[in-house]
Amino acid sequence: MRVQRAQKPISQRHLATLARSLLRESKLCAIATVNRDGSAHINTAYFAYSERFEIVWVSAPQARHSRNIRERSRIAIAVFDSTQTWGRDDRGIQFFGTAMVLGGRAVDDAQRVYVKRFPDATEIGKMYRFYHFRPRRMKFFDEAKLGGATWVTARAGAAGALRWERTERYV
């Protein structure tokens, strides 16, 4: 198998539409952090997202992934529909960036975003802490829209602007 690179860039608008579609269709994400000894840790959580592709979730501060984020803020998040069928068109999105536990007014903003997606979660902040993730890079796959075995990588700016970086097709 080899990797073919496409030279044709994908517009910011198309990338944003694709990202929102992928995020909207799944409510769970996998959060990858790094333990103190360098080993990997992964946790699944319900998430909500902002128009700037920032992701928020709630968690117990004593959970392993929460402790890891306090010590090492660089994380990765994967969002995909776990009911996809092998051999059919798959889709998902991976994020790479930094996360932090929220405090002060930022909690109110995160709670608004979270409750908009999960209306029954109005009291969730009393039991758990809110966490915020800011993506720096995203990696998309949507075989129906991008083609089979195709990955598109984009940079995410501070205001949520997406900039195509590369398209790779595995052939």
In short:
With 171 residues, the chain is of the alpha+beta class. It is built from 5 helices and 10 strands.
Notes on the protein architecture:
With about 170 residues, the chain is of the alpha+beta class. Helix content is about 25%, strand content about 45%. It has one domain: Electron Transport, Fmn-binding Protein, Chain A (Pnp Oxidase, Chain A, Roll). The protein has five helices and ten strands; from the N terminus they run E-H-E-E-E-E-H-E-E-H-H-E-H-E-E. Strands 1, 2, 3, 4, 5, 6, 7, 8, 9 and 10 form a ten-stranded antiparallel sheet that branches. The chain is globular. The protein starts with a strand and ends with a strand.
Rg from Cα: 17 Å
Nearest-integer average pLDDT = 96
What's the end-to-end separation, in Å? 6 Å
From the 3D coordinates, which CATH architecture would you assign?
Answer: Roll
Specify the biggest β-sheet. 10 strands, antiparallel
CATH top level assignment: Mainly Beta
Low-confidence stretches: none
Give the overall form.
globular
Helix coverage percent: 10-25%
Q: Topology as H/E string?
A: EHEEEEHEEHHEHEE
- CATH homologous superfamily, by name? Electron Transport, Fmn-binding Protein, Chain A
Percent of residues in β-strands: 35-45%
**Tally of separate helices:** 5
User: How many beta-strand runs?
Assistant: 10
CATH topology: Pnp Oxidase, Chain A
Helix/strand class: alpha+beta
